[in-house]
Design goal:
Elements lengths: L1 H23 L3 E4 L8 E4 L8 E5 L3 E9 L3 E10 L4 E6 L12 E7 L4 E6 L5 E6 L6 E6 L5 E6 L3 E6 L5 E6 L4 E6 L6 E6 L3 E6 L4 E7 L4 E6 L6 E6 L2 E6 L8 E4 L7 E4 L5 E6 L4 E6 L5 E6 L3 E6 L5 E6 L2 E6 L2
Antiparallel strand pairs: 1-28, 2-3, 3-4, 4-5, 6-7, 7-8, 8-9, 10-11, 11-12, 12-13, 14-15, 15-16, 16-17, 18-19, 19-20, 20-21, 22-23, 23-24, 24-25, 26-27, 27-28
Length: about 325
């Protein structure tokens, strides 16, 4: 009788393990083994370029196009040489594949402390401008919504604002710790968010070069994301805890959720739905939650995750895992 119970238990556990493994498997996978490890990814945050995905490797960046029919297809449109490891990416709102000739404009931060701005038409024209000035790793770059300014944040305790076009320096903000995030207000292209590692989130008017507001939770900060659909809401990831801020009531966070036991990681709102995703490479986990209820919608293990990205058009969350680009469906 005992033998029968143990055998039945083993069979039950085996079935549960297979079901769990199937749930954890991504819906779509694009293998980039021929290029090596993926270091950064970027799904376009704009409707007019919703099919674009940038994938960065050790010495190159691929511009790809995604289409979903019976399966998700990711096809290479162009390849750009990149002499140093990519640490961050940003796509300009001026990029368009719907005009002739095509217009592509994006930038990267790199481990050699330089910013590279790539511009081309996917045919004959291709230019790479190198912006120097930072003296340590660049953690984030971001074009503003009017394509007038490019912001960058670095471990050298500065955030810098560059003019798009000539790419000369407009402004250097000297901070008290490493800058882990820079982001622009969706409706007001003059307003810049700067997230500091010590836990400070500051806002500036770039035109007047004056501070506007500051948030301080006094816990180590690794990621900040401005909600794409609600400009008064942002999320920060601080010591494994996701905090939600309402900028109309900025004294304290309105909501929080402890998602990781380890520090580090990234948080990202979905483009349209009331969801947010988090990833932590130390824990090797990717999690998706509903914002209002904090109900977990997805929890999977990932071995060597990059940053996380939501596809603008499809209900997919995307992570580079070693040399594979992995997509999970989130309903």
């Amino acid at each position: 009788m005992t033998f029968f119970v143990l055998a039945l238990l083993r069979v039950t556990m085996s079935i549960l393990e297979r079901k769990t493994a199937k749930v954890n498997e991504p819906a779509y996978v694009k293998d980039f083994s021929e290029y090596g490890k993926i270091y950064q990814i970027l799904c376009s945050p704009f409707e007019w370029t919703k099919e674009i995905i940038l994938v960065a490797f050790e010495h190159r960046i691929l511009l790809t196009k995604s289409t979903l029919q019976e399966s998700l297809q990711v096809t290479k449109l162009a390849e750009f040489g990149h002499p140093a490891r990519c640490t961050c990416l940003s796509l300009s709102p001026n990029t368009s594949l719907n005009v002739v000739p095509n217009e592509v404009l994006f930038c990267s931060g790199a481990a050699d402390y330089k910013i590279r701005v790539f511009q081309g038409d996917l045919q004959d024209k291709s230019v790479c401008r190198v912006l120097s000035g930072h003296t340590s790793y660049i953690n984030d770059v971001s074009f503003n919504t009017e394509n007038k300014y490019l912001a960058s944040g670095s471990d050298d305790n500065t955030a810098r604002v560059w003019y798009v076009g000539k790419y000369n320096l407009k402004l250097t903000l000297h901070l008290s710790s490493a800058v882990v995030a820079v982001a622009w207000h969706a409706a007001d292209a003059r307003k810049l968010l700067v997230g500091e590692k010590i836990g400070l989130i500051k806002f500036y008017n770039v035109e007047s070069e004056t501070p506007i507001l500051s948030l301080d939770f006094a816990k180590s900060l690794t990621s900040v994301h401005w909600c794409p659909s609600e400009s008064l809401v942002l999320a920060s990831l601080q010591l494994g805890e996701v905090l939600f801020w309402d900028l109309s009531k900025p004294c304290l966070p309105q909501q929080s959720n402890l998602v990781f036991s380890e520090n580090g990681g990234q948080v990202r709102f979905s483009p349209h739905e009331e969801l947010y995703a988090t990833v932590n490479s130390l824990e090797g986990s990717l999690k998706v939650f509903h914002i209002k209820t904090q109900t977990i919608k997805l929890s999977v293990s990932v071995c060597l995750p990059t940053n996380i990205q939501w596809h603008y058009h499809y209900p997919l969350i995307c992570v580079g895992d070693d040399s594979k680009l992995c997509f999970w469906k989130v309903n």
